[in-house]
Amino acid sequence: QVQLVESGGGLVQAGGSLRLSCAASGRTFSIYAMGWFRQAPGKEREFVAAINWSGGSTYYADSVKGRFTISRDNAKNMVYLQMNSLKPEDAAVYYCATDRVVSPRRVATIDPRNGSWGQGTQVTVSS
């Protein structure tokens, strides 16, 4: 089981940027694809971005494509989400997740009841 801890959330003005980090523990971290999800109040958790084991393949939700960039550093057991041009609708709790899959597209289908999830980090965007 991989343990995940997110950080980097905060309050930012619309148009601003934030970089989220996800620290992972576990020897199998570098084998699997990793992803970011988010959940706004009153809404279901939704997929944001995913990356394969090497970082050579990524997959994004249409709503963040061109604004967000996912990356990873396997030597440090870290996954990052660079968020630029933030909009008020990006405000949510952001979660890092994995479920022992290798394809970024498969990460998008991870069931919140399964896999490994962090505790989340709050992102607030003021208009």
Describe it:
Strands 2, 4, 5, 6, 9, 10 and 11 form a seven-stranded mixed sheet that branches. The chain contains one helix and eleven strands, in the order βββββββββαββ. With 127 residues, the protein is mainly β. The chain is globular.
Task: Give the tags.
127 residues; mainly beta; 7-stranded mixed sheet
What is the structure about, briefly put?
With 127 residues, the chain is mainly β. The chain is 3% helix and 46% strand. The protein has one helix spanning 104-107, and strands at residues 3-7, 10-13, 18-25, 34-39, 46-51, 58-60, 68-73, 78-83, 92-98, 116-117, 121-126.
What is the quaternary state of this protein? single chain
What proportion strand? over 45%
Largest sheet properties:
7 strands, mixed
For the secondary structure, the number of strands is 11
Radius of gyration: 13 Å
Mean pLDDT: 95
Approximate shape = globular
Helix count from the secondary structure assignment: 1
SS content category: mainly beta
Q: Uncertain regions: pLDDT < 50 for 5+ in a row? A: none
- Cα separation of the termini: 39 Å
- Approximate helicity band: under 10%
Q: Topology as H/E string?
A: EEEEEEEEEHEE
